[in-house]
Specification:
The protein has about 325 residues and is an alpha+beta fold. The chain has twelve helices and 14 strands. It is globular and about 55 Å long. The two termini are about 35 Å apart.
């Protein structure tokens, strides 16, 4: 039993040796150092993020409408009645909280990805809660965004349960350093939220191919609902997606960010949102630590000012799965 415990829980010293970044190091050495606080509103407010993205020519989901005040809540049905599916989300929410996804409706019953239904009164109540700040950072008053659903690419069929899979890329000083795809499950109610039970699939930064998958921080091989082999996953338009994530450095001015993107069947890669305080579960999904990759970028110093395409080329070369394997491991000496 002790052996099993030791295998499951590594000591802080062992984690540090593996290059695993903890919360304190993330907050002090990277977020505080590289993310000017005056720029936080650009990413903490999804409406602002959408504005700067559109200004930069970055594709984002269509905005159906915005509800800012309680007296506007009664207009919700009028805004959504002509849209077969839509998403309601708080502009200042985080971690997927407060997001309601509706995949179809008849004007009276609104169907969620899980098959559960809501009526218009339920949705209006939810919007009122958003405005009251129930899901916002710090509980401050918020606004509700209503966005069109993404038509996710058929290449992901079976990899996600009902909801749209998204790709999280950690970008440091404009360099994409680590990536994963988040796949919704029945447990996560169609949301790509790892804490609620979504599957995290680590991706090779060079190819976009799956290298490892986890759910609730435990390794898995097959999707719990569809049975699809997760290691068969490969994200198309990978270089374009990485270039999009890299360009968010210039767009936002933030040095350490999480970029969340989706692949739409018609529009290709599009930006969902930016996160100035990205979580650390991406390391578990990849089975690798962020620290060695971040340090490699820091060592570049002033030479790190490339255009997005150059930064992507550098990252794909330096952080590819093959590049992380020691030469002796790749080519063992003859016995």
């Amino acid at each position: 039993m002790i052996k099993r415990w030791l295998e499951q829980y590594a000591s802080p010293f062992a984690l540090d040796k593996m290059g695993i970044m903890g919360m304190n190091r993330r907050n002090i050495s990277y977020i505080s150092r590289y993310n000017p606080r005056r720029l936080y509103p650009l990413v903490d407010d999804k409406l602002e993020t959408k504005r700067i993205a559109l200004d930069a020519g970055v594709t984002v989901p269509d905005l159906i409408g915005v509800i800012e005040f309680q007296h506007q809540v009664s207009s919700l049905l009028e805004k959504i009645k002509d849209w077969p599916g839509f998403c309601i989300k708080p502009a200042k929410g985080s971690g997927g909280k407060g997001i309601v996804v509706i995949v179809n409706h008849d004007g009276q019953q609104f169907v969620k990805p899980s098959g559960k239904t809501e009526n218009i009164n339920d949705l209006e109540r939810h919007v009122s809660n958003i405005l009251a700040g129930l899901f916002s950072l710090g509980g401050k008053p918020d606004v509700a965004l209503i966005e069109a659903l993404i038509n996710f690419d058929d290449v992901f069929e079976g990899f996600s349960y009902e909801g749209v899979p998204d790709t999280r890329v950690i970008v440091f000083k404009g360099f994409p350093v680590m990536a994963m795809m988040r796949l919704s499950t029945e447990a996560s109610d169609g949301k790509a939220n790892l804490h609620q039970g979504a599957v995290g699939v680590g991706l090779d930064i060079n190819t976009g191919k799956a290298i490892r998958a986890v759910q609730f921080n435990l390794p898995i091989r097959y999707h719990p609902d569809t049975g699809r082999d997760l290691l068969e996953l490969k994200v198309p338009y990978w270089e374009q997606l990485l270039s999009l994530s890299s360009s968010c450095y210039e767009m936002s001015g933030l040095g350490y960010i999480g970029t969340d993107m989706v692949l739409d069947k018609q529009k290709g890669p599009m930006l969902l949102e930016l996160n100035a305080r990205p979580g650390l579960a991406i390391q578990t999904a990849n089975g690798a630590g962020l620290v060695p990759r971040l340090r490699k970028i820091e060592k570049l110093g002033k030479k790190a000012i490339f255009n997005p395409e150059d930064r992507v080329t550098f990252a794909r070369r330096e952080f590819a799965v093959e590049a992380q394997i020691a030469p002796s491991a790749k080519h063992p000496a003859p016995s």
